[in-house]
Amino acid sequence: MADAKKLAEQLKKLNELRGPVPQELRDRVAAQNKAQKAILDALKEGPKTAPELAAAAGLPEDRALWYLVGLRKYGKISDVAGRGDYPKYELKAGEAK
Amino acid sequence: MRELEKIEVDTLVVGSGIAGLQAALDLADQGYSVAIVEKAPSIGGKMISLSKVFPTLDCASCITTPRMASVSHHPRIKTLTYSTVDAIKREGKTFTASVTRKPRYIDEKECISCKRCEEVCPVYLPDEYEQGLGAKKTISIPFTNAIPQLPVMHPEHCIRCGACARACPKDCIEFLQEPAPVEIKAKAVILATGYETTPMTAKKQYGLGKLPNVISPMAAERLLAPHGPYGRVLRPSDGMVPGSIAYVQCAGSRDKSIGVPYCSRVCCMYAIKQAILLSGSLPIADITIYYMDIRAFGKGYEQFYNNARAMGINFVKAKVARITEDEKHNPILRIERQEGDSAPAEVKHELVVLSQGLLPGCDVSKFNLGAGLNDFGFVQLSDETVSSAVTAGAGVFAAGVVKGPRDIPDSVVDAGSAAMEAASYIRKL
Amino acid sequence: MDEKITEASSKDNYRQEPKVGVYVCHCGGNISDIIDVKAVAAALAKYPGVAVAREYAFMCSSNGQDLIAEDIKNLGINRTVVAACSPSLHELTFRNVLQRAGVNPYLHEHINIREQASWVHKADHAGATAKAIKLAQAGVEKVLRKDPLNAIRVAAEPRVAVIGGGVAGMRAALSAAGKGLEAVIIEKAPRLGGKLLELGKMYPSGEEGPAIAGKLEALVRADKKITVHTGADIDFVGGFVGNFKINFKNADGTSSQVKAGAIIMATGYQHYKPAQGEFGYGEDANVVTLPEFISLMKNSPAGRLEYSGKEIKSLALIHCVGSRQVEGIHKPQADGKINDYCSRVCCSSALYAANQVKDKYPGVRIYDVYRDIRTYGMQHEEYYDKASKDGVLFLRHNEADQPVVTSDRTGHTVKVKDVLTWGEELEVKADLIVLVTGMMPADISLIRSQMKMPVGADRFLQEVHLKLRPVEMANSGVFIAGTAQYPMDVPEAMAAAGTAAAKAAILLAEPDIPLEPFVAVVDEHKCTGCGLCPAECSYDGALMMSEKNGKKIAVVNPALCKGCGACVAVCPTRAINVAGWTLDQFDAMVEAIAKE
User: Fold this and answer.
1) CA C326, CA C332: separation in Å to the nearest integer?
2) DSSP E strands: which ranges in B208-296?
3) ipTM score here?
4) Residue ranges of B 135-154 with Cβ closer than 8 A to chain C
5) Which residues from chain B sit within 8 angstroms of residue C374, using beta carbons?
6) So what's the architecture of A16-91 in CATH?
7) CA distance C135 to C113
């Protein structure tokens, strides 16, 4: 585990070397967090498809799909088995809250 | 810059795709020492990201990972990943390569590949290994089968929250890590720098890569791969299971307008293979291949093509003049059939794969090794009717697609002969 | 050289209490899409003798291999069962893992739950899973009864025999000699050069066939490590890896023998010979094959393309003669087979020849009748472009609508249902019909039958695996170079030959080479000396009756035994077993599978 003081020093030095974290990146991460939260909130109602989640979260469908892929890869959501043109996604057990 | 690391070997192999790996193994198994330099964070090249491979339909991983493991365990092979060859100098009979190990921003010796840094990192990025269809984190291990299993941090996407460093049980995050110079001395060089595909943006008529459901064959490989981004075949615009899929052949080859007049040799077969795999995972989907000539010329290829036809895949002799899309992002192909009804027609599909061609992966002329290039930037051999690997540069050999498009079986065979030429050159020094 | 057999040492893991590790591979989705791999691992974890059972996406990957190595280190696993793909793919991969981790590599059992379960029971997931569990349990029973084995080491002749002195054979010999090995070329024709000696100008270099062969021959003649026997008629090929023997008659009637550690088969191809009457061939003198046409062009006077003294003003090339044949459309050959493969080189050769005609005799009209143009090589597309530009007229037909050639007093007519003009039946008149014939393997039936060499459905020599072991044959120590394997052009044959030499050099890098230890072993106490077994043995000298301590018993020569098991089957006292495949192991496996 990193020593808190050493880490703080490293990050400070990093800011000196590279300047502050760019605003564009901050905005992007904020938008990502908002989108992911909206998707996870919508999924609390039950399994949904990518277009349904896009509508619920106010996102373009391809972006909603991309966020779903990330959440799926990192274990927050999973596929619902079944047929149909649009597969559904659901919260993974333990991720409901 | 970190301290200069010096390596001395018999042969330097540039590139660790299937040709580079095979050439290295065939040399090392004869007793020669080898250093492989790979620009990507993992060895394995393009092949490791493929789904299954024609004509045997083995999973690409089943063929590639054992070779990757053999290389990484081989006592006579040294592998440098995430490293670039900046220059190669020839002094007498020795080549000296200046190599830079790019910083991964972790202590490579201490890391135990536990992935905790990746789990806690809050920033998601498009994953280039998944052709942008999937997501990764700002610090992440490149892919499941990567060798080495070391994460790479992308500082330009780091918000410096320190979560990774706090999660790391070995304290190996190094935010301030610098590139490390390496000097490799070798008696011979094997160029195995492979290919890139012709860009999606190459053809205005095909949407310049802006139509979300017109995808590259590499993206299609990921859709079909066992651990692909979606875990199943979906189209990127809205996550729908496509019911109608089309392949546009020669979408980056046999086309003077984009500077690629040659045949890329692999596209017919990868399209047929993907079509077969698609019809396996989407049994009711309608799959069409628009083509000029089907070039199934290798061992077992014609039978493979015949199997695809017997499976109900539609082969249509037609030129695709233009691709547009409707409001639901369904691609619309304007085709001119070469048989049957000749009137131009518009056909709607739900997903389209552009069968891109192959371009050189690296401009090897920058190394000034005396190996000539042909008009298209591929390495030209001294006399290909005498040897398949000897270039005009003494001690410089070429393996695989660096000499021009070839498929996996041809590249594997080719690599062995490059190793043999290098071995006999070194012996005679 | 006398055969020296030495035993390699290895750790005595078997003396320890057996601790079996079972590893179930997903093979991407190849297995796990059908078989419940977690259920297989769970069932095996409870099986007697099993210390640990795991499942993983790709056992053969570095991560997968590390799982096994760590279990060996941390849990003391000393026998492994991997339930995965076919052993022909990766049994060796896992033996190497055991070896690296300090366990005898033969204390491993590779169970095939892909070809034998998931791929063949796609519709029955539960059944496939149950079968995979049974197969893995049988594997555990077998591995529990395994003894550590050591590779049999045999001194090898440091020499490569290259059968065939065409360009591939010459290249293979040059590459092997370049590495310092002795190479012996055995060629049946009086000269080196093979088929190239008969050919004119060739793509891609534009040199004539004999000139290309000549360049390699000069290098071969200058290399002191290479011996050449031409006019050599092989009458026997035998022996085994490291110690092959090839007997042949020389042109002067004397006999010679070559001993070699490895054999490279560079036996080449023959042109497809059209059947009597195929497109008029053999009946109409003006129907010739492409190789015949290339020679004809070579001998034609400048300014006038001539055949049998008459000027040729038009010709029609018909592609895929003897290639891409379709059952029901093409007549089978004498052996009942058709050539359903593409001969790879003929499209480029044909267009290259057409371009030469247009260059030398611009007035000659050329029709090109084809199904697909396969000019796949780097510069080959240019041949197609040039031909189109120079006015070669292309007519394209579907496989079901074969062109028809007819002749009468007015000349020769090719009738084609041309898809390029939307299925119109076209008739073109031509003075000469050129059949673009494909390649077939040369007749090497004697060597093939003596060595029991496998061939594919296309009758070319069969490699072990197109991507993993592309120039190796199932016959250990035998490699393939060039068109003996499949049609290829000269540069492609150069690559294949270089690689065949590389594999031979790797094999012969050490003075002695390891052989699989799966050979017959006789239990002297059980052997009654009945003498039934030698009669069953198909390998000369592998199994003989001998006196030992005043008792007549069967004795095995492990270097010659192939482990076929024919002797095992006839032994009335179960005194013979094949190491690694004993009757006790089979009994236990059958019992495990049959158990309710």
Assistant:
1) 9
2) 214-215, 244-248, 286-291
3) 0.95
4) 144-145, 147, 149
5) 293, 295-297
6) Orthogonal Bundle (1.10)
7) 8
